[in-house]
Amino acid sequence: MWNKNLVFGLSPEAAAGLLLRLALGLLFFLAGLGKFAGPGGPVGAAQGIADMFQPTFLPRILVVPFAYLLPYVEISLGALLILGVFTLEAFAVAGVMLISLAMGMAVQGKHDVVAHNLNYVLITAVGLWFTSKDNRFALDTRFRKK
What we know:
Shape: elongated
Strand content: under 5%
Number of strands: 0
Low-confidence stretches: none
Structural class: mainly alpha
Radius of gyration: 17 Å
Distance between the termini: 30 Å
Helix content: over 70%
């Protein structure tokens, strides 16, 4: 008998968590990959980010290390989310990363980008919640089974 509470054999929580995990993972992975593929690679991207914040009150000593780490963190978070490894932790770090990116855009007065980033924070929070309920298609669930 067909169970209307299942989506392709998954609970609604598992299906929603999987979709949100893959979507956010791809977003982060491709954003980081773009910084590697762009002119100058990650160094060029970091210099561009640092230059964008030059006219703001944020000190360069904070902006530059963040800008240099950003592509590596994005690719790492993307890979963790796509594979479902340390899923809850990756969602939590992704949320903090998105909030910090939103703060940077707020400092620059780019409120439309802030709104987009905060939408991603909401997606991250919902993904974290669904994943905490049923995360059966993640590698960490397979490894943590007793």
